[in-house]
Amino acid sequence: METLTALFAGFQTALTPMNLLWALVGTVLGTAVGVLPGIGPALTVALLLPVTLTLEPTSAFIMFAGIYYGGMFGGSTTSILLKTPGESASIVAAIEGNKMARNGRAATALATAAIGSFIAGTLGTLALTFAAPAMVEVALKFGPAEYFTLMLLAFTAVSALLGSSVLRGLVSLLFGLGLGLVGIDLQSGQARFALGRAELLDGIDVVVVIVGLFAVGETLYVASRLRTVQDAVIRVRERVSMTREDFARSWKPWLRGTLLGFPFGALPAGGAEMPTFISYLLEKRLSKRKEEFGNGAIEGVAGPEAANNAAAAGVLVPLLALGLPTSATAAILLAAFQQYGLQPGPLLFTSNPTLVWGLIASLYIGNVMLLVLNLPLAPLWARLLEIPRPLLYGGILVFATLGTYSLNNSVFDLMLLFVIGVIGFLMRRFDIPVAPAVVGMILGPLAEQQLRRALSISQGDFSVFLTRPISATILVIVVLILVGPLVVRWWQATQRRST
């Protein structure tokens, strides 16, 4: 009952004219950037961080939430019409969706993706409404030892699961941890890694790092591959709609995708990629028309797109309840909270309930806005794919530069931005994931703080992490994440040799 009362208060906040306007701005921006290949919600929120400092926090996060959900909606358009997923979670939808488009059913593919996204997003937000307060109750039992091991879990899970290899993920994580250590140590007062520069004594601004890695790094990477051949955009000429048979074949995949996506999104580094693949395989197994899979099966679009959007809602559960980012966009949202002097976690629900519940309520409103925007305006969004890439990414580079300079009016920040941008380009070039670096930079100082507190309370006894049940359980999970894949590979190699 308390949850429903808080949600009702959240709707009162979200339904004010100004917050409705920011929700609309966020959903429009999110849909637009979701449509454009290579520009996801993470990059858009990163670009907007410097220019939203003047906004009231609740309005800013309502807009960011609209961008996040809108990016998931819009990503399906690129996948279906261009077979170039804007987000890794849209890869599966590209398999069947592009085949449907080439068979003259682009409008139907876009419709099942949009309606499935709406249903999954709404049900996922409903689950978020009740799951986040329940997780807060658990989080209130956490002490410094539990928080440190929880952050250790975030480090290892994001590093091990978000890249093509554990080693690449750990390299990215260590880079981020190093950036987080720059500046004055709050306990000893000593300067660390400041290189004698007064500008670095306060540390590196997380916004500079995020914009550099995502916006500048992505722009340089796209410029280096500009001459590669691109697929032609499939035009949408008819009205986006579905027949009765299409609905009959889609509604069960929508529900199954939602049930798969939300729990994976809530897990540390569970992400949206795994549930979308599982959803696709499940629909293929359950389908009575297996011959259509690979040739444009509507179930292969409906299920994965629902799983993708439900996972987006699941990601917000650990972020809001524990302050734990489980995706690149969540890490940037965590940086946005810190930009406003807020720390997500159990105390945020009591210290700033207007923001939290206004944000959750805005997700329901944003989902309705997105359905209205995507169904009738799908042909218009598709036209965005025809923007020449040099103009698009040139504009992003200019916007990133101006936004970063406006933070502190500092030329040094601009130099740092482009140095980090070059590093971001090299990370993309050598397939080193960017998300672990962002998580490492944001959570690194917090993890160090909790480690020192835990050891101070235990008088330097490291066994405190093993004697407390919750922290010990989390450490076991950390070991399984790191060792599990190695054991599986060793077992498979042993089986192959024996046969």
From TrEMBL:
Keywords: Membrane, Plasmid, Transmembrane, Transmembrane helix. The keyword Signal does not apply. It comes from the Bacteria. Residues 20-438 form the DUF112 domain. The chain crosses the membrane at residues 20-49, 61-82, 109-132, 144-163, 169-188, 200-223, 315-335, 355-375, 387-405, 471-491. This is DUF112 domain-containing protein. The lineage of its organism: Bacteria, Thermotogati, Deinococcota, Deinococci, Deinococcales.
